[in-house]
Amino acid sequence: MGDLAAAVVVGRLTRDAELKYTNSGMAICHFSVATNARVKKADQWIDESSYWEVDLWGKLGESINQYLTKGKLVAVQGDMRQDHWEKDGQTRSKVIIKANDVQLLGSPSGSGSGSYDHNVQGGGANSSTPASRVVARPSGPAGNQGLPQGTPQGMSPGGDDFTDDIPF
Q: Domain 6-144 has what CATH class?
């Protein structure tokens, strides 16, 4: 049995996503998510933040990149890997989540309007439905041919009622 390094993170984007391309033309959407936890230190509770680097590969990253803006609430599920490099004679490393599933949740400021983005959700700010979401998922094994193993491709609406004006 192989080892497992999986992550599920729900938090807010710390900056707008960056879309880059490899030399072979493969898209990589890179973004960072912040999560908070309440921790007791001495006699008081404080908030501690953690920051998670995320890569979303292929057409999936190209499609969802425009919606990944600073402050938006997202849920990310994927595999963790640790990158190592050397700088100034010191070995450095950081953990990166290679996303398999990304969901856009709620409103960016937590205002509770229940709407996310008119073009994404198909509803306006006066929508009476609960917070909607866009789900980005791999299309399955057949949709990943020619891509690195585990590289997401395609988009699934996740059962929400979407209009035809969505660009993906």
A: mainly beta
- CA-based max dimension of the chain: 57
pLDDT in tens, 36-55: 999 988 899 999 999 999 99
At a CB cut-off of 8 Å and minimum separation 6, what does 19 contact?
27, 28, 29, 30, 61, 62, 65
pTM over 0.90, yes/no: no
Q: Percentage of the chain surpassing pLDDT 70?
A: 62
Q: What is the 3-state secondary structure (H, E, C) of 43-81?
A: CEEEEEEEEEEEEEEHHHHHHHHHHCCCCCEEEEEEEEE
Domain ranges of the chain: 6-144
Amino acid at 47: D
How many other CB atoms sit within 10 Å of the CB of residue 9? 18
